[in-house]
Design a protein that fits this description.
Blueprint lengths: L4 E4 L13 E4 L3 E3 L5 E3 L16 H14 L12 E4 L2 E7 L34
Antiparallel strand pairs: 1-2, 3-4, 5-6
């Protein structure tokens, strides 16, 4: 995490400088004209998490499980989950179908699934 940056304190008529009174706010918040901090847009990053798996299908199942367990976090984008071999990270294999459904949601089924897109019931271990 980056360090907080100094910004002028509320009520300070002075522009930020060596003599201005300052307080720290987290990076990602910028002062407005009236001195209040407001959020700014954030950048997108990809987190690479190496795991051991028997084969590509097992790695995809593992990635689905990890993604679903973190899906409660609003900053996680499950649709963009991919898997690659350690020595060929430029060759990525999609984990989820990601086709747009009629109600505005995305298909949660595995990539290259059989049948129509949409919600499915789990058929046991590794079936979802």
């Amino acid at each position: 995490m980056r360090r907080a940056e100094p910004v002028p304190s509320e009520g300070s008529a002075q522009a930020p400088g060596p003599t201005a009174e300052r307080r720290l706010v987290p990076v990602g918040l910028l002062p407005t004209v009236d001195g209040r901090a407001v959020p700014v847009s954030r950048e997108r990053f990809v987190v690479h998490l190496p795991v051991l798996a028997a084969d590509l299908d097992a790695a995809k199942r593992f990635a689905r499980a990890i993604t679903r367990s973190l899906s409660f976090l609003p900053d996680v984008d499950p649709a963009e989950t991919t898997v690659s071999e350690e020595d060929a990270q430029f060759v990525r294999h999609r984990v989820f179908c990601d086709s747009l459904l009629g109600d505005g949601r995305r298909c949660p089924r595995p990539a290259d699934h059989d049948g129509a897109c949409g919600l499915i019931a789990c058929a046991g271990p590794g079936g979802c």
